[in-house]
């Protein structure tokens, strides 16, 4: 079905976008130099790419039925990273922007 094709495309698109932003290269990073699988969620690199899939944590989120998000993180110890996502109202977002306060929907190390 068309809806499934669109959802799959957006899953791959948001994952690729999250990775190229996480490494700080944006579209200067050749998109064919890495690939994702969705089940299980993971990344692979072209030979000579110089990165290690085991160092990365990826998370796909759908804050609403009409929105797709992906998070790419290369933590020092992936087993110690937890991602908690929750809706946030404007007051929470303004508080976070003002002073970086911890709360629901933030990334925390455990």
Number of contiguous helices: 2
Number of strands: 6
Broad structural category: alpha+beta
Estimate the global geometry from the Cα principal axes. globular
Question: Unreliable stretches, pLDDT < 50, 5 or more residues?
Answer: 103-110
User: From N to C, what is the helix and strand string?
Assistant: HEEEEEHE
The helix content is 25-40%
Strand order of the largest sheet: 1-2
**Largest sheet properties:** 2 strands, antiparallel
Gyration radius over CA: 16 Å
Cα distance, first to last residue? 40 Å
**What portion of residues belong to β-strands?**
25-35%
Global mean pLDDT: 84
Describe the structure concisely.
By secondary structure, this protein is of the alpha+beta class.
What attributes characterize this protein structure?
two-stranded antiparallel sheet; alpha+beta; two-stranded antiparallel ribbon; disordered C terminus; globular; 110 residues
Write structural notes for this entry:
The chain has helices at residues 2-22, 90-99; strands at residues 34-38, 41-45, 57-64, 67-73, 81-83, 107-109. By secondary structure, it is an alpha+beta fold. The strands form 3 sheets. The chain has a two-stranded antiparallel ribbon. It has a two-stranded antiparallel sheet with strand order 3-4. A two-stranded antiparallel ribbon has the order 5-6. β1 and β2 form a beta hairpin. It starts with a helix and ends with a strand. 6% of the residues are buried. Residues 103-110 have low confidence and may be disordered.
């Amino acid at each position: 079905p068309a809806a499934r094709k669109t959802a799959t495309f957006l899953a791959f698109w948001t994952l690729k976008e999250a990775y190229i932003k996480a490494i700080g290269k944006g579209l200067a990073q050749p998109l064919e130099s890495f690939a994702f699988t969705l089940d299980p969620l993971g990344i692979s690199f072209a030979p000579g790419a110089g990165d290690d899939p085991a160092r990365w944590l990826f998370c796909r989120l759908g804050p609403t039925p009409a929105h797709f998000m992906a998070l790419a993180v290369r933590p020092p110890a992936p087993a110690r990273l937890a991602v908690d996502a929750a809706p946030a109202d404007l007051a929470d977002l303004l508080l976070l922007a003002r002073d970086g306060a911890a709360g629901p929907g933030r990334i925390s190390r455990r």
